[in-house]
Design goal:
globular, 11 helices, five-stranded parallel beta sheet
Length: 384
């Protein structure tokens, strides 16, 4: 497999956000590989005893089909059925590392535990890909360089490591707060609320804004609302040029409040995704873009061939809904570090068509899935 790119000095991307995807394909050549060809490559990688992880190689004989021979394109991944996270939760982290990366350093990331016990994944190359792709998006918007305030989960969580690696790519400082998202989710499951812990996070953030004047604030939409309500002045007065959010969602009314009252003169970039799926990139509403549902100002697009977002019928996970319809989000991740076929997310979204900036289907108006008593795990969003 190829080595992921290493970010260097800030580079200008002329042409604005519309130029981001061509620049991404130039910097990350794997993005130019067709989805079917990439799928075949990933089957050879993950199920070969020489390169695959013990987690997947040990399952090859019990699948009932040969993934290397029988999966000839993305559509054939239906042979795997829906992904069950239980074996991933139970797996030893070293069994998740591909043998093809046995001589390379690796890190263990954990999910936030939205639907129960956390899952562990291995990072060898993925973080470098994520940094290069996201930095390209920032540069296409005229944003790159400067110090960062990370109002994000740290510790084993991928979000904090991503922010640190992104800032490292342009030699920026990262000012991080102490943030454990599982504390809030445990409190909510036991009948408590998030207010006390949210106040603790905001209290750590306020002095850093004043003292350090960071160019970027990374956080979640939910925490951005809480922070904004406690700020004596709009964010731009603290030197912030851009707010980058991911994780939880906020309502259209909250988003409008933030833009009008606190984000004047500040760019706001949001992503949709998680540790297992990656970052679905924001595409703004443009005249020749896809139609968006009422209240939505942008769509999210997850770059193939690394991952594929599909919006499906909540009662039939193999039927994709039509463009403009709401359904349940299903994600397939196809990375050297991580293979997850057809994972049903705890989110619903409206399927959108391709966008001029990112020419593949996306999602909009994402919100937590409303359960219908089918016995599925309860999703606790918390503050992340």
């Amino acid at each position: 497999m190829t080595t992921p790119p290493t970010a260097g000095p800030a580079r200008a991307t002329p042409g604005g956000p519309a130029a981001a995807y061509p620049a991404m394909r130039e910097r990350v050549p794997e993005l130019a590989v067709g989805l079917d060809a990439w799928t075949r490559r990933m089957m050879r990688w993950h199920f070969s005893p020489e390169t695959g992880s013990p987690f997947w190689v040990s399952r090859r004989d019990s699948l009932g089909f040969d993934p290397v021979k029988d999966v000839q394109g993305y559509a054939d991944l239906e042979l795997f059925g829906l992904f069950d996270k239980a074996p991933l939760r139970a797996a030893r982290a070293r069994d998740l590392r591909p043998r093809g990366y046995r001589d390379r350093p690796f890190r263990i990331f954990e999910t936030g535990g939205t639907t129960g016990a956390p899952c562990r994944i291995v990072n060898v190359t993925r973080l470098a890909y994520d940094v290069e792709i996201y930095r390209t998006v920032l540069e296409a918007r005229g944003l790159s360089g400067g110090d960062v305030l990370a109002m994000t989960p740290m510790g084993p969580h991928a979000y904090g490591h991503f922010v640190e690696a992104l800032a490292d790519s342009w030699h920026g400082a990262v000012h991080a707060i102490d943030f454990d998202p599982r504390w809030v989710k445990t409190a909510l499951r036991s009948g408590g609320d998030a207010d006390t812990y949210t106040g603790h996070l905001v209290a750590q953030t306020l002095p850093l804004l004043s003292a350090e004047r960071p160019a970027f604030l990374f956080t979640t939409p939910r925490l951005l609302v809480e922070l904004a309500m406690r700020l004596p002045e709009p964010l731009h007065t603290y030197g912030v040029r851009a707010v980058c959010t991911g994780g939880t969602s906020c309502t259209p009314a909250e988003a409008q409040f933030l833009r009008e009252e606190h984000l004047a003169g500040v760019a706001w970039l949001d992503t949709y995704g998680n540790t297992l799926a990656g970052h679905a990139l924001q595409a703004d509403a443009v005249p020749d873009g896809p139609a968006l549902p009422p209240g939505a100002t942008h769509s999210y697009h997850l770059p193939p061939p690394f991952a594929v977002l599909t919006v499906v019928d909540p009662h039939d996970p193999w039927r994709e809904v039509a463009v403009g319809e709401r359904g349940r989000v299903r994600v397939t991740t196809l990375l050297e570090d991580l293979f997850i076929p057809h994972l049903l997310e705890r989110d619903s979204a409206v399927r959108t068509g391709p966008h001029p900036w990112f020419p593949w289907d996306g999602v909009a108006a994402v919100r937590p899935l409303e359960e219908d008593g089918d016995g599925a795990e309860e999703a606790v969003e918390g503050v992340y």
